[in-house]
Design brief:
Blueprint: E1 9-15, E2 25-29, E3 32-36, E4 51-55, E5 60-64, E6 76-80, E7 84-91, E8 96-104, E9 109-116, E10 128-132, E11 136-142, H1 146-149, E12 153-161, E13 166-173, E14 183-187, E15 190-194, E16 202-206, H2 216-227, E17 239-240, E18 243-247, E19 250-254, E20 257-258, E21 269-274, E22 280-286, E23 295-299, E24 302-306, E25 309-310, E26 315-316, E27 320-325
């Protein structure tokens, strides 16, 4: 620990040995934590196409050898219909793409889906995606290719059907601040975009709802933590490649790479964003588990993180942690 006072919550090692990956994606379907792609060497520009899952009941990692898995990093993923791992966009080793791929966890088969509506001269990387109410997927982030040079950013709603294999991107807004390596979390009737730039740390998208990712019990524990802490007088420093997960009025933020110049390696800083009335930040402290480019999911009453880079050498890790409320 780097704190002078004990943390109210910290990361407890769940599985020490697993797939080493950074800028990969993850989602939970039933009792499995699926991870896909990313980089195994942070200096590499060529992503991998590995698909693994952690059986959360046994703690054992497994690897899929199904054909058709795409090579991607800096992509996003969502669990769809509690059956499919849906991959959205990403870097394929040559360009940024807006393509969609899905893995059927029941048949263990991959399928590339047909898409329309996305600009042909652009792509997606280091973006975010979240399933919203009504069966829509909100996709937010900086577009690649020609649009990158204009720092163009927009939000899209993605709709479609797995069985028909056709999906449509619909422009939601072109007024969203340009972000890359940010996080996207739902709480109440709003979506909260965090980080991904050195200013405007939080951006709120109102009247868009997403199911809570954390349980009510976890939210209650976060509420009790905040009641014992003093809210921050100003926003945390800007950061990217962190993780965030939330619901029921609270969002947990961990790690990342800061823009303030005080740190030259991934940080272990942990915050709680309270969205009940006005936006308030509470700092839980600084964990010894410092990561960037990792992934975060919720399984029942457990918040899990996996992989990412750490230390001055940006070592790629393969361990899995659970948030322990001390």
């Amino acid at each position: 620990m780097t704190n002078e006072t004990p943390l109210a919550a910290d990361w407890k090692l769940l599985v020490s040995v697993g797939p080493c990956a950074v800028f990969h994606v993850a989602c939970i379907i039933r009792h499995r934590l699926y991870i896909h792609g990313g980089l195994t060497n942070v200096q590499s520009k060529m992503p991998v196409n590995n698909l693994y899952w952690l059986d959360l009941q046994t703690g054992i990692w497994n690897e899929s050898h199904a054909e058709g898995s795409p090579c991607l990093s800096h992509h996003s993923s969502v669990a769809w219909q509690d059956r499919y791992v849906l991959l959205i966009g990403g870097w394929d080793g040559r360009s940024r793409t807006s393509s969609l791929h899905c893995f059927d966890t029941e048949t263990s088969k991959w399928k590339q889906l047909e898409t329309s509506g996305y600009p042909k001269d652009a792509g997606l990387s280091s973006h975010s995606a979240i399933v919203c109410t009504g069966g829509r997927i909100l996709v937010i982030g900086r577009e690649g290719s020609l649009h990158t040079h204009r720092k163009h950013s927009s939000g899209h709603m993605l709709t479609g059907d797995i069985s028909q294999g056709k999906w449509l991107y619909t422009v939601l807004s072109k007024d969203i601040d340009s972000r890359s390596g940010h996080s996207c979390s739902g709480s109440g009737n709003s979506i909260y975009l965090i980080g991904g730039r050195d200013d405007k740390f939080v951006e709120t998208m109102d009247s868009i709802c997403a199911p809570s990712e954390i349980s009510k019990d976890v939210a209650q524990k976060l509420k009790l933590i905040c009641e014992k802490l003093s809210r921050l007088s100003k926003m945390p420093s800007g950061r990217k490649n962190h993780v965030a997960i939330g619901g029921y009025g609270f969002i947990v933020v961990h790690g990342g790479e800061t823009f303030d110049g005080k740190h030259r390696q991934p940080v272990g800083e942990m915050y709680v964003l309270c969205t009940k009335k006005v936006i308030e930040f509470f700092k839980i402290g600084t964990s010894s588990v410092a990561r960037a480019g990792h992934v975060c999911c919720c399984y029942g009453d457990k918040i899990l993180i996996h992989g990412g880079i750490t230390g001055k050498e940006n070592t790629v890790k393969g361990d899995t942690f659970e948030l322990d409320f001390l």
